[in-house]
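thought: fold this chain, then report.
action: predict
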Amino acid sequence: MHVSLATSAGKAGRPNEDFVGAVPGAVVLLDGAGIPGAESLCFHGVAWYTHRLGGTLLGHLSRDDGRTLAAILATAITEVAAEHGDTCAIADPSSPQATVAMVRAHQDRLDWLLLADSFLVLDQADAGPLVVTDEREVTARRECGAPLAGIAPGTPEYDRVRASCVTAMRARRNQPGGYWIAKDDPRAAREAVTGSRPLAALTGVVLLSNGASRIVSPYDRTDWPGVLDLLRAGGPASLIARVRQAEAQTAAGTDGQTPDDATVAHCTDL
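observation:
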């Protein structure tokens, strides 16, 4: 497997809370999340969590011991939780957490796992790209944010309703009927979106963090076949550069988006 990687922090002077790495036959991409100003809960921070979890996952994947990706993720979540459970309030809904995307070439098949809103694009040999994501977080965010419709931003009413929406969203995290993300509870790994395809059916696979996938939505600069074309022509760094161009060309505040960390892994020669 040939792997090309690129990552870019969303804002200068702030740590990149994404993580991407590879070992022979496997790739891991994480997109960190947490509540700004929550250092009192975990002094390590979101970037520490994603990098620690990502490194732990790669360590287990390198052993190639036949365990499922979900089992590996559960073990890694448990191990990282043990590293800071005595010093940090890791059970608090606002403590550091991360989306997870993993692929592994194993026994002539490509296995994958997705948890929360990262993306996987399978470059199929005899068909168009197959896009896989875990839609539960996006669905929960849309449902929890519905009460904000029609309320003018910047008003006291907007701030009050938004605070209640944030509380409702947190209550759905790692709960049945809500959405799942890597955090302190290894049971989340059992809820991941998983799948497998024969390697012979694929010419490549792409992993993207939410910040990188914005080139398709909401920026609408290309479609998923176009993403594969961009990667073939210029690699992951070129695709991220297109995302940054779209951000710069979008008037501030008109799309509700702020620059985000963006990360891409492009795997070929599976």
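thought: worth noting. Helices lie at 46-61, 69-84, 136-145, 156-172, 210-213, 224-249.
final: tokens above.
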